[in-house]
Write a structure and sequence with these properties.
The protein is α/β, with parallel strands linked by helices and 191 residues long. It is globular. It has a five-stranded mixed β-sheet with strand order 3-2-1-4-5. 36% of the residues are buried. It is built from seven helices and five strands; from the N terminus they run H-H-E-E-E-H-E-H-H-E-H-H. It has a single domain, classed as Nucleotidyltransferase, domain 5.
């Protein structure tokens, strides 16, 4: 099920639906060995923020060596910038892949900044991103094989939908500790 934010225009909604349908189409085989042949998993990640910073969420879609979706994850992460959300999505993906016992992973993201920083092609200058970058590099070092690639947004539609779902569920009316109920204690205060 694809859930779209209520504030999308008709044109934006159609574009998102087309992208989601395209993401479901089988992709052409990659050059060399496929992820399935190597026993690797493919992971699509996305972070989203409504406003920058604003309410943010992360989405992760893990595709097993058999080519089937193994897990779809989404989380609301509170107020964050889009770049912080992208890193938090990567960290969630790395954590889940390790918990599932995978050693060979291929990550796909539509964030050129994140991909180029992880690849070492761009410097990490922002202090908040430096900490997240260091955490990601530490987790990446635990894998036998890791690669990350930039993909166009339309090829990452399912992860994008998951990230937006994370925001929607975290900020839906009546949920305690969200913007819709400012007097309710936050999750941290309740623990």
């Amino acid at each position: 099920m694809l859930r779209l934010p209520a504030d999308l225009t008709a044109a934006e909604a159609m574009q998102t639906i087309r992208a989601a349908l395209k993401a479901l189409e089988p992709s052409p085989p990659a050059r060399g060995k496929t992820a399935k042949a190597r026993g690797a998993i493919r992971i699509h990640i996305d972070g989203a923020a409504r406003g920058n910073p604003g309410p943010a969420g992360v989405g992760v879609v893990i595709i097993g060596p058999d080519g089937e979706v193994a897990e779809r994850l989404h989380r609301g992460i509170g107020e964050a910038t889009n770049n912080v959300a992208e890193y938090r999505a990567l960290l969630l993906a790395l954590e889940r892949a390790q918990a599932l016992g995978y050693q060979d992973i291929e990550v796909f993201s539509d964030s050129e900044l994140l991909v180029r920083q992880i690849q070492g092609r761009y410097q990490v200058k922002h202090p908040a991103l430096k900490e997240l970058h260091a955490l990601a590099k530490d987790r990446i070092g635990k894998y036998r094989r890791f690669s990350i690639q930039h993909v166009p947004r339309e090829q990452n539609a399912e992860a994008d939908a998951q990230a937006n779902r994370g925001i929607d569920e975290a900020y839906r009316p009546g949920r305690r500790g969200t913007k819709s109920d400012p007097d309710a204690p936050s999750a941290e205060e309740e623990e």
